[in-house]
Amino acid sequence: MLSSLFVFSPGAAVLALTAGAASAAAVLFSEGYFDDRGDRRRFRALTLLFFLSVCGALFSADWLGYLIFLEVSTLALFFLIARKGSATAFRYLVVQLAGAAVVLTAVAGTGAGTLPIGPVSGGMGVLLIAGLGVKAALPGLHFWLPEVHGKAPAPVSALLSGVAVKVGVFGIAAALGLRTSNILLAAGTAMALWGVVQALLQYDMKRLLAYHTISQLGYIIAAAGTGSDLGTAAVFYHSAAHGLFKGALFLCAGALEKTYGTRDLARLGGAAKRLPAVFCLFL
């Protein structure tokens, strides 16, 4: 029964291991980040749900299973974000559900829901990639990411940039297969350049990291657009690398904010001397 619902792939395994490491680090960090015991217990439970649903999406054998598990992970993140910004959390949920509706339309239109995850061609393939583009914060569909990072607790940001957006990228890579996409190549390049320029203009540390995530996703999307074996390998390699280092950077940002009471880079002078361990991890 399970063999018909789930399938193993090396790329999915790499991302699942990354998700496990990022989730474990976020839970450990949350023990000192949240003062309320109830908040810590809630975070642990929701993070476990998030991790299991991410694994379910990555190892799903068909598109419908992938989408169902993906939306469970979205709901887990919604409740994690809602602790510090309910309005932002609801906007996040609406945007993500809109993307899911587009994906569901594509899945229903192609009958791909009962077929193994793989390339989807034609107009429905474009629709599927567009819907997943919301999850992966593609250019024009990325508007929600900096706002959510601005409101979400630091360990939630680590899960969002370190793991959640990569599940959308995984879907895009699967839908595209070994086909070259000039649109994704161009979008990824634009995303990489625009994201880093916007990051350089930020004073809020978490918004800077959010825009840098958009930039790094650009490299990943461009690699997927090459339609080559090497490009596909690069998608999973850089997704894992970015998931680990960006998750760590958001946790460092959380430690600095908790110590200094601000995320304004102009007011964080001397942090290297006061928090040398955080400084070393940041490097």
Overall description:
The structure is a single chain. The protein is an all-alpha fold and 283 residues long. The protein has one domain (2-282). 80% of the residues lie in helices and 0% in strands. The protein has 13 helices and no strands. The protein has helices at residues 2-5, 10-33, 37-59, 63-82, 86-110, 122-136, 144-151, 154-176, 182-200, 205-225, 229-260, 271-274, 276-282. The longest helix has 32 residues, at 229-260. The mean pLDDT is 89.
Termini Cα gap: 46 Å
Number of helices: 13
User: Taking Cα atoms only, what radius of gyration do you get, to the nearest Å?
Assistant: 18 Å
Structural class: mainly alpha
Strand elements, count: 0
- How many independent structural domains? 1
Shape: globular
Strand % is under 5%
Largest sheet: none
Q: Determine the mean pLDDT.
A: 89
> Which residues form runs of ≥5 with pLDDT under 50?
none
Itemize the secondary structure elements and their pairings.
Layout: H1 2-5, H2 10-33, H3 37-59, H4 63-82, H5 86-110, H6 122-136, H7 144-151, H8 154-176, H9 182-200, H10 205-225, H11 229-260, H12 271-274, H13 276-282
